[in-house]
Amino acid sequence: MAEAITCLLGRWREGDRAALDELMPLMYGQMRALAGSMLRNESGSHTLSATAMVNELYLRLADGPAPVNDRAHFAALAATVLRHILLDWARGKKRDKRGGGAIHETLKENSAALEADAETILEINRLLDRLNEVDERKVKVVEMVFFGGMTYDETAEVLGISAVTVHRELRMAKAWMRSELERAPEAVPAP
């Protein structure tokens, strides 16, 4: 199966869209687990499902081939795309809060938790965007480990660094983010 996946990734990289159609059923379980782990890190009141996230992942990947060499690179790409799907959801929640949606729902008991969750996602994204200006590799490590659920070894393989370096980069990214939050505590939503 690993050889088939590698072959399909090569075909997709070369522009064969049918290869992605064959690849997704083989990778579906892993992608759904990845999306599920991302959602578990959020509040339990998410309106997104892992299945919906994987479907959206497929639609976004179908826009064109990507330079992926193997399963680990594909998982790293998926982690980045899934992060953006989660971010788009959070932005939609903020837009809806301001009346941007055409359909209005009555308030529910858990709507405050959903809004706080969207605020947190947006704040994390803002911090990651700022960190990306300083150190792109640290952002990739955060995406792969936290959003992608990849191990240190898998992350190290994709980035061409050691697992020890992954651990160090992750610690430094967390320290940087914590420092930024302490400098601007008003930007962080109340839990």
Automatic annotation (TrEMBL):
RNA polymerase sigma-70 ECF-like HTH domain residues: 3-182
UniProt-listed Pfam families: Sigma70_ECF
Keyword list, A-Z: Sigma factor, Transcription, Transcription regulation
Keyword set includes Transmembrane: no
InterPro entries: HTH_Sigma70_ECF-like, RNA_pol_sigma-70-like, RNA_pol_sigma-70_dom, RNA_pol_sigma70_ECF-like, RNA_pol_sigma_r2, RNA_pol_sigma_r3/r4-like, WH-like_DNA-bd_sf
Keyword Transmembrane helix found: no
NCBIfam families for the chain: Sig-70_X6, sigma70-ECF
Stated family: Belongs to the sigma-70 factor family. ECF subfamily.
PANTHER family recorded: RNA POLYMERASE ECF-TYPE SIGMA FACTO (PTHR43133), SIMILAR TO RNA POLYMERASE SIGMA-E FACTOR (PTHR43133:SF39)
The name this protein goes by in its record: ECF-type sigma factor
Organism: Terriglobus aquaticus
